[in-house]
Amino acid sequence: MNMTTKSAADARHLEADVLVIGAGGAGMYAAIEAARRGAGRVLLLDRSLIGRGGATVMAQMTVAAAVGPDDHWEHHLADTLAAGRGLSDPKLAALLCEVGADCILEMDAWKVGWARSGDGFAAVQAPGHDRPRCVYVDFLSTGPAVSRALRAQVQRVGPAIRRIGEVAVTDLVVQDGAVTGAAALHVATGEALTIGAAATIVATGGLTRLYARNSASLNMSGDGYALALRAGAVLQDMEFVQFFPIGHLAPRLIGMDPIMWDPFRYKLGGRLLNGAMEDFLGRWGGDAENGRYSTTRDLATYAITKEAEAGRGSPSGGAWLSFTHVPEAELRGAFGPVIDRLAANGIDLTRDAVEVSPIAHYHMGGVRVDTAMRTNVPGLLAAGEAVGGANGANRLSGNAITEALAYGRIAGAEAARIAASGETPAFSPAAASEAVARLVASSRPMNTAGMVARLQRLMSRDVGPFRTAAGLARASQALGALRAEVGEAPPGAPGVAHDLARLDWFDLRQMIPVAEAVVQAATARTESRGAHQREDFPETDEAWRLNQLLELRGETTTLSRLPVAA
């Protein structure tokens, strides 16, 4: 099947029924479902290799799904809404829980390899859940196993899904008020691409690359949010960035995930201790854990940060995580070969505690969608972490992959329907001319990698887990200056393979407006709730049980508020 057609001389053109931007868990499931629903030409694009970038493949831990005999998706929903601190959209959250459980069962049929206990799934009870609900393949390979199963299923679907890696989508193409495709940079060749599609799904994940310490892959720059915003879609709840409380801090780990400690902590009862080796979570509003990992992520982040600020932190400025009270045989039984990998890094868990501290991990906000994953812009849908609404102010542990699979399936089905309906206009090269001109433009040399690092530092300093009006104002001013410095054209010349300085420029063009959206929403929300903590407004205010919406009008991003959906 040939999807290539002739277009403008400056760009190679591709045509598809359904375009999926992002090939993590959400994107692959969306492509599979679109093809199953009759879309004969599905184009799956990713910044990385297909199925090997994004957050899903990096997830080592567990997946929340009500698949146990004494569980029901409505119980999972109750916990999800409680974790969301009053801001979750209950309809979207219900889809996450109900459709997500179906996806876990379907992936079982796809031989993902869920761990078993008797006749059912093995499951653990993660923080915020009322019962053991979080399934896994094993505690280090769940995400890779999910990605591998999805890649295999994409292969089985056959020629209906065309896959192209190393493609950075720079703009969505809008004509007659609808999204009709995209413009992109083919990183491997430096070539400009345009893509026409009847339906486009943004499945690009979150924005954690905005922060210097983050747990995600390098392509989690908030691309989808920026693409959707420029195309006319609405963003919501952009202030809610989740910081994983026990990201590895010290000693240095090579080749291991910084959030690897979580499953072992709640499996083995790892103890969080301050610099004086004292339990401290109860001092800051967390649970007295008594060997169980039960404090939610936002409260644990708060407690670790505040303990360090009070001068009671570990030497590197975090907290100690200790398994020294656990017998060696039990450690090896839980960690297996990881014990040897840790030993290669100079860590002996029978005698050594490690240092941990909060690390940017997930984004609760995102593109505003309806229950079919449609945005307010015809032809444009979103899936996975790119979607805002279900998780409210704080995501429940284990919900990320569940959300990716459920929303990917729903978006794929709806995109296939849209493609079959003919309700969006055909792609016009003229509508993509401005985006193509940017892709083939060039300007002066600039240190774009240094600019990315500067953005990450200022976001970490002033827009991290704890915010103030002064810090947010400082961040806003710095982002404005950075925007002016970046300018309107990328450095280098078109047609150069793997031009990283040029690619960083396009990344900055996405990262800056997304960072500004986080700052704008965080400045406006004068309360503390979930992952958004204002030190100058430390209390939760029931009058702020509102979702904040952002949309681009001309050159200005405007903010409005709506009561949380019933």
The end-to-end span amounts to: 46 Å
Helix content: 25-40%
Strand content: 15-25%
Radius of gyration: 23 Å
Number of helices: 14
Walkthrough of the structure:
This protein is of the alpha+beta class. 34% of the residues lie in helices and 20% in strands. The protein has helices at residues 25-36, 73-83, 90-109, 142-157, 223-231, 261-268, 297-312, 328-335, 338-344, 399-421, 433-439, 448-462, 469-486, 500-524, and strands at residues 4-5, 12-21, 42-45, 63-64, 116-117, 120-121, 134-135, 161-164, 167-175, 178-186, 191-202, 235-236, 241-250, 271-273, 319-322, 354-363, 366-367, 380-382, 466-467, 533-534, 546-553, 556-563. Strands 1, 2, 3, 8, 9, 10, 11 and 18 form an eight-stranded mixed β-sheet that branches. Strands 17-12-21-22 form a four-stranded antiparallel β-sheet, covered by helices on one side. A four-stranded antiparallel β-sheet has the order 13-16-15-14, with helices on both faces. β2, α1 and β3 form a beta-alpha-beta unit. α3 crosses α10. The longest helix is centred in the C-terminal third of the chain and has 25 residues, at 500-524. The radius of gyration is 23 Å and the shape is globular. The model is unreliable at 1-8 (pLDDT under 50).
List the helices and strands and how they pair.
Layout: E1 4-5, E2 12-21, H1 25-36, E3 42-45, E4 63-64, H2 73-83, H3 90-109, E5 116-117, E6 120-121, E7 134-135, H4 142-157, E8 161-164, E9 167-175, E10 178-186, E11 191-202, H5 223-231, E12 235-236, E13 241-250, H6 261-268, E14 271-273, H7 297-312, E15 319-322, H8 328-335, H9 338-344, E16 354-363, E17 366-367, E18 380-382, H10 399-421, H11 433-439, H12 448-462, E19 466-467, H13 469-486, H14 500-524, E20 533-534, E21 546-553, E22 556-563
Parallel strand pairs: 2-3, 2-11, 3-8, 11-18, 19-20
Antiparallel strand pairs: 1-2, 4-7, 5-6, 9-10, 10-11, 12-17, 12-21, 13-16, 14-15, 15-16, 21-22
